[in-house]
Amino acid sequence: MALPRSVARFNRVVTNQVSRHVATILPGFAMVEHRGRRSGKAYRTPVNVFVVDGRYRFALTYGAHSDWVRNVVAAGGCTIVTRRRTVHLTDPRVVTDSTHSWAPAGVRTVLRAISADQYLECSPD
């Protein structure tokens, strides 16, 4: 089911403004740089990121219909800044996994609690 859109709107206005300052530095976080599908405008969205078997996974706590996810999939990739490194990602695909076995224990608990069963997976370029 993922989190409701009202929470997403609040986070975009409040929480994301705070997390922008640390997302490129802290482990488990990244800033996704992507372009709008129609506008071509550049966007930067703070996200949680995990590396599993050499691929980057993003928990989709708001579901696969979030604008940033749709932008990345439509473009065929994105760039992230994580732990002060820039990584180019390609081959984005949305995966459904209700076990959440790929996620760290604490994250797995939250994902199960909110029924966020999808993640976006990309390969480093």
From TrEMBL:
GO molecular function: oxidoreductase activity
Superkingdom as given in the UniProt entry: Bacteria
InterPro entries, per database record: F420H2_quin_Rdtase, Split_barrel_FMN-bd
NCBIfam families in the cross-refs: hi_GC_TIGR00026 (TIGR00026)
Protein name: Nitroreductase family deazaflavin-dependent oxidoreductase
Native source organism of the sequence: Rhodococcus wratislaviensis NBRC 100605
